[in-house]
Design brief:
Elements (H helix, E strand, L loop, with lengths): L1 H26 L6 H5 L11 H31 L5 H29 L1
Helix pairs in contact: 1-3, 3-4
Length: 115
């Protein structure tokens, strides 16, 4: 069972690293990252103001990426190095709270820039 949770921590770290990659790509003027921000229902070319959308979405992507990497590392340590108990539980709650906020915030952005 611990191996499964260890695998989840590696996946969360991977999501965070991908979030950093997407952040820097968009910051350099690249396209809107569809996997993190749009999903299948939205196409970048239908965005009313691509630059405005990216400007408002970048801080959320950075917060999500940082939170994912930090929680992933804490959970990895908890699973493979030293049980951290309450620290891991608090990290999970904070990660889930940031994830819910991120999803709500980016949904509002999509409604504003794509409808």
């Amino acid at each position: 069972m611990e191996e499964m949770f260890g695998f989840i921590s590696v996946m969360v770290i991977g999501f965070g690293v991908y979030g950093f990659y997407a952040y820097f790509q968009m910051k350099k003027g690249g396209p809107i990252n569809e996997a993190l921000l749009l999903g299948r229902s939205y196409d970048e070319y239908k965005c009313k103001d691509k630059e405005g959308f990216i400007k408002e979405a970048l801080p959320a992507v950075l917060v999500f990426a940082c939170t994912a990497v930090i929680y992933g590392v804490v959970d990895f340590v908890h699973c493979f190095v030293q049980p951290l108990g309450i620290v891991d539980a608090i990290g999970l709650v904070l990660f889930l709270a940031v994830l819910v906020w991120y999803l709500a915030y980016t949904s509002k952005l999509k409604k504003r820039y794509f409808s």
